[in-house]
User: What shape does this take?
Amino acid sequence: MTLAKTAKSGIDTDELLGLRDLLVEEKQRVDHLLRRIEDALRRTQPRPRAPSKQEKVVPAARPSPLDNVKSVIGATKDLRLPNGNLSAERVARLYGLSLSQLAGWLGRTKQSLSKTPDADSLQNALSYFERVARLRAVTESDAEFRKWLRMPNETLGDRAPLDLMKAGQWQDMADKVDDLLTGMPT
Assistant: This one.
């Protein structure tokens, strides 16, 4: 309804103009309040933490042809916690490593691994260890798996798999285990 029409209908235009001004002022107050709320929320949001100089930034492992084979995946389900994350403590125990050793390989401190062994920031790195541990699907025991980890292997240039893992060649070892399990050696 325009002001011309309101004048004809007998509605007080001054009253309408006053109400409109009040509405504009109220909108400005609400907009100001919303900006303050957004600012407060932005300040309370955790900022992504940049990795320290000691921490390694580990890319996610390439997909494996075994990622959907239930018996292979089941061989490593004990490495995961109820929340679904891999546990550095469980990986270290399986590999026969101390938490300090694994922390060094991951570029972390023992304290950080002890405090949050299933941290999201560890999942990429631990996924390589999980893929290598899938070999347990065809070994008779964890002891046999640990023995395989420590024995020099001809296909690895007479180096032990654990030595390659220690050297950070996690993707290579994960791929070798995939090849062993699929029967497609490179």
Observations:
- The chain has ten helices and no strands.
